[in-house]
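User: For a reading group we're discussing how well predicted structures match intuition. Take tRNA-dihydrouridine(47) synthase [NAD(P)(+)]. Before you show the prediction, I'll give you the sequence so everyone sees exactly what went in.
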Amino acid sequence: CTKICTKSLDTPSHSNPEENGAEKGAAAIKSQYLTSKEKFNEIVSSGWKERNKETEEEGRDAPEEEKSEEPAGKRIKLEDASEKKKMRGQNKSRPHMKPHTYDGKRLCPSIIKEKQSKCFYGDKCKFFHNVAEYMASKPPDLGDQCYLFDTLGKCPYGVSCRFAKAHTDADFKNLVNEEVLRANGGRTTVKNTLDKELQWRLRKRQVPFKASEAYLKSMERENGGEKRGKSTSTEDKPAETPTEAQQTDLHVEAAVKTVGALTDADLVKLRPCEKKQVDFRDKLYLAPLTTCGNLPFRRICKRFGADITCGEMAMCTNLLQGQASEWALLKRHESEDLFGVQLEGCFPDTMTRCAELLNDNIEVDFVDINSGCPIDLVFKKGAGCGLMMRTNKFEKIVRGMNSVLDVPVTVKIRTGVQDKTNIAHKLIPEMKKWGVSLITLHGRSREQRYTKLADWEYIDVCSKIASPIPLFGNGDILSWEDAMRARETGVSGLMVARGALIKPWIFTEIKEQRHWDISSSERLDILRDFTHFGMEHWGSDTQGIEKTRTFLLEWLSFTCRYIPVGLLERVPQKINERPPFYMGRDHMESLMASQHVDDWVKISEMLLGPVPKNFSFLPKHKANAYK
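Assistant: Thanks. Here is the predicted 3D structure of tRNA-dihydrouridine(47) synthase [NAD(P)(+)], as structure tokens, for the group to look at:
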């Protein structure tokens, strides 16, 4: 292992930007691979034309529609340097097509599942019931093999599957591979799905929150009888601050009023030492990533060595309303052995009730509170980073969730809200009193976003303040050397975010302490595995295929920033260095280096077939870390 000086945390060594013709802020690449933008686009497009000729010679039909072009407005901005400032942040006005819009004629679920009984909706059903008519208008199959059929023994999408000819007979009946089906033994690979009966009860507000009401009632008494907004409690009489024994009696009183047999859990409240204990130390933590941190991507990262995974940020109010799209963010694959969910909210009552709801209905190892989200929609209502400035509410949220959960409560924060005004070191001692089990600190403020490097010196200071509670550091980790330098601080573990999106094999590099010069064919295999996992998660019908494609394209907007190790003049690549235009060692490596949306679509067509005629895509995020 090469020893790395901690001094480089503040002043990382950079080669002369003028060397090898590199621009300021651009990564240093060997001169033989450098090229101009015009030549790069010409070679990539010519290579794609040659590939199309080869496929035509093999007898494959080329798609009739033209390749998806990047929107003109976006293309002009990319070429116009004067519009650079507008390229920051999110593409808020991007075209957004829902996956089901690409499937013009959809078959009724009762037909797909081959139910013996007739459709519940009868003549009022808006879906197709004539299989022959549906098959005549259905888009052509994408291949001769169905991943779901080969893996599970039966494809749950039947004739609507885009690989249907692999598992349907002449009468459009779904075939079953009994041997594979028997080997799977009917096991469920994904947990934490939303039960329909629970969803109905949530929408009708018929789910009881006894433990939450007990906590909120005691909190109300501590505040001198102040009302909690939309409280369901009927007791308005002020009371003195209850003692610990009185609080226990209050909990028991609420439990005794339940219907049915009493259990120990009804009468005895768990002490902190009796809660589930999780050993977080010396682990690699895949950050909860909005949009890109989906279940198929987490499966990829688990395979490469991620120790801890966490679901995407879920809004507590949507979970309490039983929104299926929000509950989908809580799903857990069987390979995720240490898994948590992240909640967003700004009120103690909703966050506590949501925590109790999850505690009773899903399997998780910890629940994380998002107090680091910088986006305006979340911050302006007092959630995310806003909680760092509302410590009174923050404390009530943490204590309330701790009182109803059987698993640890963790918190993710930033250095502060305003640039150059750090406040995390003031919050951490308070969090220790509140009962937080793990603190993750992103070394940037809300205002800073990604325009500057993460402050690891400050993270080091905070880790000492947090002791003995584990504190994980987060920011700018793109190589095992970055990780080793970060571990020289006092952090208990590392959280990896953008680094995992750019190259998910970073976890392998860190654990094996090596730079992996991964080939383009290996990278394509990773993308292919993602599409397989996507079809297993979202479906192999048209809607599922296009949803998988959308998330694949979102991910490709990050992977294009990766520069192969063999091309670098100086190893390792830095996360804030912009990749210049360069030619790869083969056409696929060059295509993967393209930052043009149209080239990402071409890669997706290699894995998921041609895009629909009305297809359009623009990535959600733009690179905001380059100067």
